[in-house]
Design goal:
Layout (H helix, E strand, L loop, with lengths): L5 H10 L4 H19 L2 E4 L1 H17 L10 E5 L26 H8 L3 E6 L37 H7 L4 E6 L5 H7 L2 E4 L19 E6 L2 H11 L6 H8 L8 E6 L1 H4 L3 H15 L4 E6 L1 H13 L2 H13 L9 H7 L8 H15 L10 E5 L14 H12 L3 H5 L3 E9 L5 E8 L4 H15 L2 H4 L10
Parallel strand pairs: 2-3, 2-4, 7-8, 7-9
Antiparallel strand pairs: 1-3, 4-6, 5-6, 5-10, 9-11, 10-11
Helix pairs in contact: 2-3, 5-6, 7-8, 7-17, 11-14
Length: 468
């Protein structure tokens, strides 16, 4: 039953084909089978999830008009507040009680009937795209059954929880790519929503300039169902799904930005994406190459000359969590410590440069509706290879290379799985749209998924995991 789309599962629950308790039991069984090896969760609440599933069955039996996600199991990144559960944000110390109250997005999902099964591991303070956390556990990328490879971060347990089968929606956050990166590395789907589309209230911040909230799902169709459930504009996932399912690729103009992202991309990934683009080119309205130099400029600004993220993270710690900077692991703490003060002229100049670049983003869409880029430019390396700080830094920069510029320019983007690299690891295709066009992007992504196939069809299943 877990292998079906969320929309199909919701319909089956309402028709009495199986109960929410049976669905949850199947999800908990998957965690019992694979949880110890995959290490997706910081905290797993099997008892609470099963109790909530029984309550969902009572609701399903007594009322035909139930919330759209009633009985659906979800995982939550451990920087979201969840009523009654502790929050660590990847650090060694539990955060104050104020961070154990439902975040806005958690409340929206709870109101839609979803059931939290646990809180997933993450990079400390969400500061990094690799996915490693020396304080606790680094989830195991399920696509390599023998070697512990990184899952991508900072929402490192999110994609893993989906393949484990214990969750059908996995909440994450995306500052520089922390939803799209683990989606690309684990063969799942993840969208960076337009900044400000959804409140970040109740989520431990990394950068108030760049933070967004959202989720990873197994398919684009599931992503649309999730979006339709939580977005205040919709509230009716089926209506949104039907509307976006009418998107025709023949009416979509796509562009491939020529920039350093492609130059830095590993050859087998370039080759696979080239074949994908050739296929898409036969179905889209147009597929052209454009100057993508603005993406290179945005990357240099974000991770090179101007420490916006480190400055804002440091300011939060010093204001809200005094003494926390000293307990951070050096892999994160040394970079946060480089942050400036919020009144430092260099930081203020960085913000102004950031706004200037973002104001130019429309130029990228003069000949196209959608930009096409890699979701990842390297294969997920083994965790053991990144023990050296310099090698970790090199990997982190490469991992953020295709995603951070999109964040800096205020765009919305989604990573969808499109193939396997030479190491047998997933490859993500990143589709990018102007800020504010979240639904339009999802419609195009759904049309691409209809053309290329879902991950389970086009990639198969990770070694060692049963079909769920």
């Amino acid at each position: 039953m877990l292998s079906r789309s969320i929309a199909d599962i919701v319909s089956a629950l309402r028709d009495g084909e199986f109960s929410a308790t049976e669905l949850m039991t199947a999800a908990l069984d998957r965690h019992a089978q694979f949880g110890e090896r995959l290490q997706a969760y910081k905290l797993f609440d099997a008892e609470g999830a099963l109790e909530s599933a029984r309550a969902a069955d009572q609701l399903l039996a007594s009322d035909n008009d139930v919330p759209p996600l009633t009985g659906i199991p979800i995982s939550v990144k451990d920087l979201y507040g969840v009523d009654g559960l502790p929050t660590f944000a990847g650090t060694r110390r539990q955060l104050p009680e104020k961070w154990s109250r439902d975040a806005w997005l958690v409340a929206r999902l709870r109101g839609a009937g979803a059931i939290t099964v646990g809180k997933t591991h993450m990079v400390e303070m969400a500061f990094g795209g690799v996915g490693i956390n020396p304080n606790w556990d680094t989830p195991w990328n399920p696509w390599d059954d023998e070697t512990h490879r990184i899952p991508g971060g900072s929402s490192s347990g999110a994609g893993v929880s989906l393949w484990e089968g214990s969750a059908l929606i996995a909440l994450g956050s995306d500052t520089g790519g922390s939803i799209r990166i683990p989606a690309a590395f684990t063969g799942t789907v993840g969208q960076r929503t337009t900044r400000g589309r959804w409140p970040t209230e109740g989520v431990v911040p990394l950068s108030h300039t760049l933070d967004t909230v959202g989720a990873l799902t197994r398919t684009v169709e599931d992503q649309i169902y999730f979006f339709g459930c939580v977005d205040p504009k919709w509230g009716d996932p089926q209506t949104l799904l039907e509307r976006l399912d009418s998107t025709e690729l023949a009416n979509v103009r796509m562009a491939v930005p020529q920039c350093g992202i492609w130059d830095d991309c590993e050859r087998d990934i370039v080759d696979r994406l080239g074949r994908v683009l050739s296929d898409l080119g036969n179905h889209t309205g147009s597929l052209v190459e454009i100057d993508g130099g603005l993406l290179d400029d945005a990357f240099e600004l974000s991770l090179g000359r101007r420490p916006i993220t480190s400055t804002e993270c440091r300011a939060f710690l010093e204001t809200e969590l005094p003494g926390w900077l000293e307990i951070l692991h050096p892999i994160v703490g040394s970079r946060v410590a480089q942050g400036l003060t919020l009144d430092d002229p260099e930081y203020l100049t960085a913000l102004e440069d950031h706004r200037t670049l973002a104001s130019q983003a429309d130029k990228l869409f003069e000949e196209a509706d959608i930009l096409v880029l890699p979701g990842n430019i390297i294969s997920p390396p083994p965790v053991a290879d990144l023990a050296d700080f310099d090698r970790y830094g090199e990997a982190n920069a490469a991992i953020l290379r295709p995603t951070y510029p999109i964040s800096a320019l205020g765009l919305t983007a989604i990573s969808i799985p499109v193939g396997i690299d030479g190491n047998g690891m997933p490859i993500g295709l990143q589709l990018v749209a102007p800020g504010g066009q979240d639904e339009e992007l999802l419609g195009v992504a759904l049309a691409v998924e209809r053309e290329l196939g879902t991950a389970s069809r086009s990639l198969g299943h990770p070694p060692g995991l049963l079909d769920h």
